[in-house]
Structures are given as C-alpha cells and as structure tokens.
Amino acid sequence: MKSSAAVHRLRLVSAPEGLSFILLLICSVLKRTTSFDAVFPMGLIHGSLFLMYVGFLAMARQQQRWDNRKTAVLFLLSVVPTGGFFAERMLAKEERGEEAAVVTA
C-alpha cells in the first residue's frame, strides 16, 4: 500500500518525540539532584509532541488501514524512552515500500 502524508508526518514527529522523552527524564533526574529545574518547559514540549504523535498515528491508521497490532506496536514505542527512534525506522521502511519485519512476524 502506498504511504500517505499522515505516515510521513508521523515519521517526522516520532524521533523528536522520543528525544523529548529522554530529555524530560534527564531533566527530572537533574531537578532532584541539582538546582537545575527544566521539567515544566520540557514537559510542555514533550506533551505537545506526544499529542501530535498520537493524532498522526490515528490519522495514519485510518488512511493506511493498519491493523490493531501495528497500531499498538507504534503506540507502545511512543511510551518507551528510545522507542521513537525505532518507530521512525519502521515508518521510514513503510514509506520506502518495505514491510516492517517487527509487525508482520
């Protein structure tokens, strides 16, 4: 199936969402160990990117007619600290027309 604009948008937001999650975790640790406190602004950034990811995931699911398993895998990758990078790789394969081995196995 041909990749849609929604898949491309999801791919573009997946890596920044994953990076923002890691940075939020780092800011959380720094808040408790030093006087540096950037949890609130980083939380806003991560929350916005996460909501964009979920919205784009819903649009891509509808346009591409993804099954529940593929959608669940992509959602679970968004809540794992480095999962956004794996999601980006899966979506890049989808855009190139390759089938992601993780989902079909």
TrEMBL record:
Keywords assigned by UniProt, alphabetized: Cell membrane, Membrane, Transmembrane, Transmembrane helix
Membrane topology: Multi-pass membrane protein
Coiled-coil spans in chain: none
InterPro entries: DUF3817_TM
Pfam families (UniProt xref): DUF3817
Domain DUF3817: 8-92
Subcellular location: Cell membrane
TM ranges: 12-32, 38-59, 71-87
NCBIfam families assigned: integ_memb_HG
Protein name: DUF3817 domain-containing protein
Originating species: Kitasatospora cinereorecta
Phylogenetic lineage: Bacteria, Bacillati, Actinomycetota, Actinomycetes, Kitasatosporales
